[in-house]
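User: hey, got a sec? need Cyclin-dependent kinase 20 folded
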Amino acid sequence: MEDYAPSRYKMQDKIGEGVHGCVFKAIDLQRNMEVAIKKVALKNKFGNISLNTLREIKTLQLCNSEYILNILEIYPDLTGLSLVLEYMPDTLYSRLKSEMNPLSRQQVRKYSLMMFKGMAYLHEAGIMHRDIKPANLLISQTDVLKIADFGLARLYFPDEEARLYSPQVSTRWYRAPEILWGSQKYGTAVDLWACGNVLAEMLRGVPLFAGTTDIEQLAIIIRTLGSPRLNEWPELTALPDYSKIRFPNSVGIHWDNLFPSCTHAVEIDLVSNLVVYNPKNRLKATEAVEHSYFN
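Assistant: Yep! Here you go:
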């Protein structure tokens, strides 16, 4: 890793602040183009090398897809590392918040296809993102959606039954039910649950499940989808937190009532095959890309 003189980059405004670092807009004077510079700490608060930082760098270096944010350069600075990334002026979150120009049905279809293609690429490469949400889906000047923020990403080993993953991942509103019930033996299906929630949010304009605590999050999911049936998800009772709390029985809300403005059943069909209790029954990213919604 070469030490680039920061004078090559003309720093401008701060454009974001996340758990894992601050992001600034800058001009790359050599290439004469806008870039984003994410300053990340190399050590965590305990003085150890930050795994999140290393994961993010490694993942971005491994990936080569038009739907994954591009890392251009890395240089050391006083507090850690600066990652030079392609500049993306927008996020899906800011697009969803814009009342002036709401997303058209064509844009929803286009963005969701790009999201699933990026996800299929990651999963083929054995990478779980574990924090898919509108704020981590960036939109370029040419209207291309790219997956970003790999601070929680992990390599996934489907053949290793004994491997445990942290349940303290993903943003609550997009967190899969198996994680909410404390599972540490989950897989790439947690990303597809989150993608289904993002698609639902694009179609509805508001989040599908917006809980303020993990218990409320589960309660809202159960109220909406109905109580999980053990014949459809027999593994549920083995999850660590399953017996810790009982929820009232619920029949759920019909999908059509959750999406009153959707005139095409095909949109709802895709959501309903992703937002499914049993992770084994969720569509895979490659299957989502092939869904008739995109034909």
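Quick note: Strands lie at 9-18, 21-28, 33-41, 71-76, 80-86, 90-91, 127-128, 137-139, 145-147, 154-155. Let me know if you need anything else on Cyclin-dependent kinase 20.
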